[in-house]
Amino acid sequence: MAFPIPLTSKMSGATPDQLRYWRTRGILRPEIEDEKSPYLYSFRDIVALRTLAWLRGDHSLQMIRRAFSTLSELDMVEHPASYTLVKLGKSIGVVDQNDPGQAIDLVREPGQITVGTLEDVFARFESHNRRVVDPLLHPRDGVEVNPSRLGGWPTITGTRVPFDVVASLIGDGSVPAEDVAFYYPDVSPQAARDALDFQRSIVGEAA
Asked: How far apart are CA 81 and CA 46, in angstroms?
């Protein structure tokens, strides 16, 4: 599944300007389309970008770049979404794949094993510019993200119905939310309204 920039921005918490900067500086290039516009991101890209946005909330970009550089020095060269980066006080670490209860410091004491609290990048958080980022897996009660369903594209909770299909259906007012069930029996009126609210939030942030 390929995610356009507005939806990538909404789901990751990275602004379009940050996406552009991180792409041009080589911090994270989209793995689907990295040569020319329109740029399309994968779900793995979104997870990695969300991690960057979460770290950027209280760590400098220089420190984040150093953490990525240390990953390479430690031969951790898979896609960034393959690793769980965590905050270690004023440093950044990566979860030890052999012992999930420990993390390897990447910045202040590179290579040192540290025991720390592992925070959930998928939860709601606030970015460095005070932007509140929705929880990744449940951005709305009626909208969910299941990485194994439709490639991580947001769907109506408990269904395979894409959120944007429902949002488009009721967006112009021609189909009331209460009538969506005639088209999609598993979609409740509230879930339809949640889908439209999520769609409007994407458009609003992209404006």
From this structure: 8
- Among candidates 75, 40, 54, which has minimal Cα distance to 12? 54
Rounded Cα–Cα distance for residues 61 and 49 (Å): 13
Point out which residues pair with 91 in neighbouring strands. Answer: 88
Q: What is the pLDDT of residue 118?
A: 44
Summarize pLDDT for 53-107 with one digit per residue, the tens: 999 888 898 999 999 899 888 888 888 888 888 888 788 989 877 776 778 889 9
DSSP reduced 3-state for 103 = strand
Quote the number of domains for the chain: 2
Range of the domain at 154: 143-206
pLDDT in the model for residue 169: 95
Alpha carbons within 13 A on the beta-carbon side of 116: 22
Maximum CA extent, the chain: 60
Judgement on whether residues 28 and 93 belong to the same structural domain of the protein: yes
Task: Report how far apart, in Å, the C-alpha atoms of 98 and of each of 31, 101, 103, 104 are.
Answer: 27, 9, 10, 11
Same domain, 123 and 47: yes
Burial 177-205 (b: 16+ CB within 10 A, else e): beebeeebeebbeebbbbbbebbeebeee
Residues 178-198 have a mean pLDDT of: 97
